Amino acid sequence: MKAENEQRTGLLYGFGAYGMWGLVPLFWPLLMPSGAIEILAHRMVWSLAVVAVALLALRRWRWIAELVRQPRKLGLTALAASVISVNWGLYIWSVNNGHVVEASLGYFINPLVTIALGVLVLGERLRRAQWAAVGVGFAAVVVLAVGYGRPPWISLALACSFATYGLIKKKLDMGGLESLTAETALLFLPALGYLVWLGVEGRSTFTSQGLGHSALLASTGLVTAIPLICFGAAAIRVPLSTLGLLQYLAPVFQFALGVLYFHEAMPPARWAGFGLVWVALVVLTWDALRTSRRARARLAGAATGAQGASAAPGPASAPAPSREPA
Question: How does this chain sit within the bilayer (predicted)?
Fold first, then answer.
């Protein structure tokens, strides 16, 4: 009963995290006339404040000294911070410049790019269904390039940057709250310096657009941290396969907002491209669920066999093993 309650709580946290990430395109336009880089700088500065309060409440500081003593890990953290800042900045710019649908495509194709990185960088071997999904995904990009009259650069840049970020995080092996704190701490001084420079130049919107606008910019820290905290709570309570399915909620919401709320154009070629992407994701999800089910069945069979062997009475003296082939 307790396990069921934990899983139910984890699902709620997962829906909360991906739901907030999916609805965030409604938030960024509220920050206009701030530019994407100014919003990004505020997001970095205020995120550090939020996660610092969270770490203070949880008393989780010991990892900082360990990180500082590991130059390689610190360098990877700096690289992760740089990559995610590109991802964040491009996403904010996309939403505020009428490219919500194209941005959502980036997160739809992100799993396919992650698989490709696994093959190219980690030398992983793909199953047939995974190769099929990657092939269909590549065809989708071609169709979309024809439809747009250019490659979907925003989608590709968002997918590649986030997949690269995931690859670096895999090598770092840090908790979500800790890694966000380290990344924002490394970005804090450049971001704060940029905001100070804007103020000196008289180009800052933080103080010139009223108290409400200032509060909205400060809330970017909460917008960043709260979904991540919910995601961390979900990750320890639900199976990874379930979490993998929930991740599609965010781009589905973003796509729906782009079409239904922001009224972005969806000509037939674009529908065809998105349709191919969705086919690739269905194949990928089916293969992942099938593989997970088979792995659980093998583990259950091995456990049953081990229990049976331990329960069976052993002979007084076991015969020597035969060297003849069976």
Answer: Multi-pass membrane protein
